[in-house]
Amino acid sequence: MNSPVDTMTSPAKTDGGFDEAAFARFLDARNEPDWVTELRRRAFELYCQKSQEELDPEEWKRVDIRGFDPSAFTVQPTADTAAEFETLMHDRATYAGDVAHVDGNTTAQRVDASLAERGVIFGSLADLVHEHRDILEPHLMTRAVHPETDRFSALHAAFWTGGTVLYVPRNVNLEEPLHSLIGLSAAGAAELSHTLIILEEGASATLLEETASATTDAPGLHIGAVELIVGARANLRYVQLQNWNQKTWHFAHQAGLVEQSGSLQWTVAALGSKLAHVHQDVILKGTGASAEVNGVTFATNRQVLSYYTKQAHEAPHTHSDLLYKDVLRDRSRVIWRGMIRVEKEAQQTDGYQRNDSLVLTPTCRADAIPGLEIEADDVRCTHGATAGRVDEEQIFYSMCRGMTQHEAMHMIVEGFFHGVYDRIPMEMVRETLSQAVEKKLGIGRL
Length: 446
Prior knowledge:
446 residues; alpha/beta; ten-stranded mixed beta sheet; 11 helices; 22% helix
């Protein structure tokens, strides 16, 4: 009898919007440097090979993608510049730069002149590969995200359509945040944006990135990648708010690599999509590197939100701290599979991971599977997972004091998420997440 992985991940060939003919048309339509074209060709060969192989059952066996048909989606040659998006963070702060992508095409990019004068590069990846090969080539899908990971990573590496680049030179500190928007507008559009952040030694920056759909009823596909390269003694804050409509498939491979004494604070919020699966790696490469990963997910209706996280300690005195909190309602499902991996040379490692789920209805399901793989003998690594129902007495108590059931539920959910909010130093981000959750519960407005 075939396992779920066998039946959902063994297509006979690549087809639809991503077959060989589509790839040839895609290359013909792009005017790119030879080194980028060669990377794409190698990645497409990998994609054809990986499409004949099963996906890793450890990662995928709980994620049913048998309903996913790649032939239903195509890369869009142009963007609908008239499309409007209800963004959650853009209007809440002053930004030193903005980049916007719609259906895989850059529609706007801006960076303050004062930053450009200091050597900061911020803009569209599709444009910057022409001008900054020396900076981008050593990092683009070579150190953090690797095309050979699986078929989705290979497909992304072959067909990436744009994305955001942030490069901060040595010892340059950006005090104001930057903003990136990734949007889907056309029905059946495939969006394969790539976010690449490179902080040199001693630099610091904050990037807030969000995804959004122009309408609630247009099917879409996002196969993305995020690479966060944090140099020695550098400090990066990265926030990604995923808010696609509930007819969008969302697949992504995301990785942060931190060098000696560098620090990464990575906040993820997952509110939208029909089905989302994110492979998230944190790689602590240098001595004394540290990373804090914060996750908030809220699933409703029949949404499936899946995260596969890995904290890789590859050097001594490294520290990682991951906290995910999930809220589920209706017939939704949230899956989290976490792993802390400590290499033999990574002595005196301190690693922690925790996942908590709050179940609002009896028809939803939460799967949490933490894990440890430790080769060193002088470490402190702990993990945990909890799941529980909302206390009906709490709801009754609140309603007796004049609250509606929705208001009581929001107060309980807000309190549950507060453990993550307290770890986020930016008040604007905390407020955005709180009000987004309130809206999804069906009360209040952003």
